[in-house]
Amino acid sequence: MPLPDTGTLPEDLRVLARSISAFYGEARMSRLIEAVVSAAARDPQAAMVLRSFFDERLVLAGQMVRRAVERGELPPETDPEEVLSALGAPFYYRILISRRPVDAALAESAATAVWAAARAGAYARRADAPSYGPSPGDA
Fold this sequence. Notes:
By secondary structure, the chain is mainly α. Helix content is 68%, strand content 0%.
């Protein structure tokens, strides 16, 4: 899934949420994530692979949030991984818990809610928060 760079975080979040919605809107893709999560619940090696995949994806997608911080759209202490975890969470809830369809309305509401929360400082780094790993470009 390509990462958007529209020039503003609200639009980047919308574009990314729409891409996630389109991806998981296909029945075979939602079944795939169900199978992978189920395997990870039973097999430690599968769990490690799943976590590694999502950790890497969160770090890479965090570039969108870091750019927004540099533009002054978000507070400097905003944690990119937390912002993107919050964006993805409603999709996985729909697929894995409520077992309802993923649709465009979900994409829009997820992007709008995450943008509002991020602007309000809801995803500020805490001293005791875990890190998903180094950001790209860190030495």
